[in-house]
Amino acid sequence: MFTCEESNFLTDIELLFIEEKRYNNQTYVSNQGKKLNLSQVELPDSVVAKIKKYGEIIRSEVYELQEPYRIHNDARNDVTSKFTCIIPLDPEPQGGVTVFDQYAEQFTYSLDPYYTSKYNKLLPVGSRDIIDRWDPKNKLPDTKEFSHIRDEDKIGFTVAHQFKFEFNKLVVFPSIHFHCSNNVSNFAFKSSLVIFTV
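Request: output the structure for the sequence above.
Response:
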């Protein structure tokens, strides 16, 4: 599985541009009462050029989380995304992201219906055998970083790569692979720019 990290990815001017060019704001509320704010963002040509080596951009958005995101993939439903590119925008980001060996190419799936969104197709426990490399003999460890994941959702998954977030450090991984935010003690907020390519 291809992964990549690039420190100091955006210039100060690019960071300001992205902050000013956010639009179409949407808010989702989880079953825990926590918010996910999602904004589409226009990217300057300089960022488009830097991302080009990972593919053509099909979507870019800024997300703000009040709780760590649970297991899902970003394959997309209209066109299969090639790479998920994340750039943390917090000066001191909390946690990071864990990417799993397991993947699905046809749809964007979520294992846990904690957000009321029609975009991520819910994949119930009884249907998880359609996930490539999913094996019910495997289970994620009961550690702090996975403490927000339901026990039934830990089954079948193995860790391929873990990224520790740093401000303005680009992380790249294949969109078809399942992944989740890493939990930390006293998790409060996370903001990142995410870019999907083909």
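Residues 12-20 form the longest helix (9 residues).
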